[in-house]
Amino acid sequence: MGVCGRRTGVIMKYYKKINGEKLYLSPVNTEDAELYTKWVNDYDVGIYMGFYREMISLAKERSLLEGFESGGHSYAIVARDGDVPIGTCGIMSIDQISRNAEVGILIGEADYRGRGYGTEAMKLLVDYGFNALNLRNIMLKVHADNERAYASYVKAGFREFGRRSGGTNKDGKYEDVICMEILNES
Predict the structure, then answer these.
(1) What CATH number does domain 13-136 carry, 3.55.40.20, 3.30.420.10, 3.30.70.100, 3.40.630.30?
(2) Is residue 141 within 8 Å of residue 177, measured between CB atoms?
(3) What pTM value is reported for the model?
(4) 15 a catalytic residue
């Protein structure tokens, strides 16, 4: 690989910032705004992310990605096989004094759901949070009816520590919101 992420005249779109077995995490790229817009407007994704009731325009998504690009810890989840972007994840609400933060993840490409990519991405993100950012406690929220995500978070080491009863309303039905955390005991 050459200078500035160039490989023999080819400009690299994704950078292997955090490496895993099946995937790597790369800084978000505003060139992917159309792909992200497709993901967040997919009912099957949005129903669990809290934004399925609204349409996210390409301009709005591009603006969000530009904000992510300028700082913070937001990453594209990229499958190693073909360097294909399959989702996004990030560490937010970082409190350096209390050493805690929140994480979020979205697997946008349906063909990659339920195949361990989300679990691996979450493990990489948590490891980065603990070892690079010196965090002690990382939490997330998941809708109680999102059983696949809940199981993935448990595999990644999270434990449930609370619930907000009827914390979200989906199409007239109230669902609990589960709070989960993982601690760095070292």
Answers:
(1) 3.40.630.30
(2) yes
(3) 0.85
(4) no
State the sign of the Cα–Cα–Cα–Cα dihedral 16, 20, 22, 28. negative
The gap from C-alpha 116 to its chain's centroid, in whole angstroms, comes to 14
Kindly report, residue by residue over 83-129, the tens digit of the pLDDT: 999 999 999 899 999 999 999 999 999 999 999 999 999 999 999 99
Q: Which of 15, 117, 153, 174 is catalytic?
A: 153
CA distances for 174 relative to 141, 163, 165, 168, 170, angstroms:
15, 13, 8, 6, 6
SS3 12: coil
Query: Which residues touch 123 (CB under 8 Å, ≥6 apart)?
Result: 20, 156, 157
d(CA 65, CA 134): 25
